């Protein structure tokens, strides 16, 4: 496997922006300090004792006054240095703001281009398909002879998914008369209205978390992904939504909690009627639309039942939809919907580029570049000092293989323990509350989540 691409975090571009801002603050402080010293020193020239000494020794007094003026107001003097550092602070702030504005404008431009392509799709798409069939008629017979080749094509070029998802709002806008849907979030919100979210219910399941991966105190990032892989593998398609909450007690008695959240297991359509399972397609579109979901509220209920307090550090670890809900919960941290101290989020194969979290929440996102699921929000993860994204390549040739925790994300997560990249090291160091080095105990409790109408 090739070396992964790592963006964001302590070694990311936005960390450089933060450094520019820090340098600006330092320049401001130095300018104020030098300015105060200059003012105080100017006052010395008018001190009564100095003026009185001029009567006794005019030549010496004159030399003193000249030297003081030179030091304060001459070339390289304190007054000039104060002004120079003040100007430098303004320049540093302007540079940081300009770079960040350029990044934001670039992302907005990409969204606008994709929206326009979607709006024009009713005209351009039929012509494009016809042109493709004329120039390469064998593509249809090739797909018929080897249906699996379609998956290979898409997973080799997952940017296709970005283009389709990013263009969908434009197409929906045209189909609904224009102006109704303006972005991906709005399009998801429109579809989410077809899926009633309901009221969450939580039931603790006894005697389930007996696997070693559920009972072992996590010591590194690989152990975190071991726990997620175990939980994700215990829930199959169409089965009830189950999560686990690990309560870690360190040698000093401090508590921390890790919640493992599997991905989507129920691909229900709106025509299927009300669905009691929370790990369904409806939850996906609700989160993509920016909604607080019944699954998020159910996780909060499970944390409460597991004994977590509002001040205890919480790490949310999720695969696919689980990562989406984890990020939304971090976004809602400290509110009535999720009144817990989420300090860390780990996602695996999750489309979370459009979900904002507080600056003090540390996020580690793993994305297989051949996995189409992280592209379902048509947005790159932002480069922020608190958001580290690790993109690796692991092509299995199928949607399922590239998205699986066991096949793709567990090995990639384990590899991070040997990484010396500053962003990965920074995340590992920040997560010490969840990765105790001394004697510690862990208790894992399993909860089944559901919803009522």
From TrEMBL:
It comes from the Bacteria. Residues 375-421 are annotated as: Disordered. Pfam families: PGAP1. Residues 375-386 have a biased composition (Basic and acidic residues). Residues 301-379 form the GPI inositol-deacylase PGAP1-like alpha/beta domain. This is GPI inositol-deacylase PGAP1-like alpha/beta domain-containing protein. It comes from Actinoplanes flavus.
